[in-house]
Amino acid sequence: MKEQNHRLRKWTEQKNVNIPELFFRHYKKLGISDNEAMLLLQILAFHSENVYFPTPNALAERMHYTDEEILAKLERLVQKGFLEISQGYDANGILYEKYSLFPLWDRILDIVDKQAIHQEEQQKKKEEGEIF
Amino acid sequence: MKEQNHRLRKWTEQKNVNIPELFFRHYKKLGISDNEAMLLLQILAFHSENVYFPTPNALAERMHYTDEEILAKLERLVQKGFLEISQGYDANGILYEKYSLFPLWDRILDIVDKQAIHQEEQQKKKEEGEIF
Amino acid sequence: MKEQNHRLRKWTEQKNVNIPELFFRHYKKLGISDNEAMLLLQILAFHSENVYFPTPNALAERMHYTDEEILAKLERLVQKGFLEISQGYDANGILYEKYSLFPLWDRILDIVDKQAIHQEEQQKKKEEGEIF
Amino acid sequence: MKEQNHRLRKWTEQKNVNIPELFFRHYKKLGISDNEAMLLLQILAFHSENVYFPTPNALAERMHYTDEEILAKLERLVQKGFLEISQGYDANGILYEKYSLFPLWDRILDIVDKQAIHQEEQQKKKEEGEIF
């Protein structure tokens, strides 16, 4: 019993990675492959551990790719405008580099906006159809 | 400005999917491929929308696979003991089926336990080494 | 052992409520009391269960207040511009009411912006001080 | 526009604090006041920033209490068996202290268990009632 309670404690102490639900719904539409999606999520997982610029090697240890393959995938994601390398200053004024998925969030919001406009138009047509 | 504030509002209203951080750290060790990992996360994303038994078709719409390929992958994940189909009763006493990732969480905790034991042993050896 | 494993399963199946970390850091600065803060979080907890317009009674059942006290607190939070009652359409085109904390998020971002500007100015002064 | 996009970016980069949904549902039943509940959540918020043993002063800065009042509340929460001060070793083998809410999670699971048993009994009675 003690043994099992210890497992429950372990579980309650671990962290969660928070992923926007819209990511799962829309990455395919943006031409992101399932493997690339997983790589982006691994980057978010590192962020949740306060590692903002994981090395290709650190990512390769958790995925079925070599360092070189990870690097090539990261470069492609940057080129396609889903991932960016941004710079900031920490609390001590030290410059640091980090991966940011903001360009991806921005594009996912574009999709959501387009869908909302389309839905409104459909609704409007439906209402007009009901009138005439 | 209004336009952009509207996007901020949209973002704050969307939901997050909570993924145990240990998942990202350990799925590879369990012999789960990156694509299978993504499929498991898609199931969790559906859970967060209160869809507990997404159809192969619903999953295929969000991933780069056909319904048949999704079905084959789901069956493999069940066979390998990472995913189970469990049954429960909702608030109205109606029986429902749902996917559960509990077998996977259980096995990830096995890994964490083993690592903790190994670490303790290493620590002990180190301390003994310091004494003699 | 089985018994305890059952508790672990229960825990892994429960949902989390995601609260912006900035909320905890800044509500006091905005003149929100600890009790009001708790009420706002209870509203977010209902949102995570897909209840977007909990009644004063439903909130009172979870807090140490009467329905009337909850209602008075909700009105004050609306008046002070932290909470709003917004309207939307669900997937079936049905109008619904819901509480939104967007005005609060907007004001918390104002604080964050002001702090960032202040910090930059301090940094600049420090750098100028180092030159002369 | 740029200005507003900057706010969206800020928001997407902030962290979330994950609170078990069961907390909001059950703390009142355990005799925890709304203010104490808020204090417990502040501790979890510090945890999400990797501060596992926030000082009374750090907590007092975010709540409407003095350091002494915070300390008294923390002591009461420990005495009542909702909060514990546990010890562990970090990756470098250094001993650290931290607050743990595990005793609270354990007691919330007790409530959930009792409710499940009660519900099953009601269901059984209902079914027997239907037979005779």
Structural features, described:
Four copies of one chain form a homotetramer. Chain A is of the alpha+beta class and 132 residues long. Chain A has one domain: Orthogonal Bundle (Arc Repressor Mutant, subunit A), CATH 1.10.10.10. Helices cover 61% and strands 13% of the residues of chain A. Chain A has helices spanning 2-13, 21-26, 34-48, 56-60, 67-79, 102-131; strands at 16-20, 84-89, 95-100. In chain A, strands 2-3 form a two-stranded antiparallel sheet. In chain A, a hairpin with a 5-residue loop joins strand 2 (84-89) and strand 3 (95-100). The N and C termini of chain A lie far apart (71 Å). Chains in contact: A-B, A-C, A-D, B-C, B-D, C-D. Strand 1 (16-20) of chain A pairs antiparallel with strand 1 of chain B, so a sheet runs across the interface.
The largest sheet of chain A is:
2 strands, antiparallel
At the fourth level of CATH, the homologous superfamily of chain A is Winged helix-like DNA-binding domain superfamily/Winged helix DNA-binding domain
The parts of chain A where pLDDT drops under 50 for at least 5 residues are none
List the secondary-structure elements of chain A in sequence, H or E: HEHHHHEEH
Distance between the termini of chain A: 71 Å
Kindly report the oligomeric state of this protein: homotetramer
Radius of gyration of chain A: 20 Å
Report strand % of chain A: 5-15%
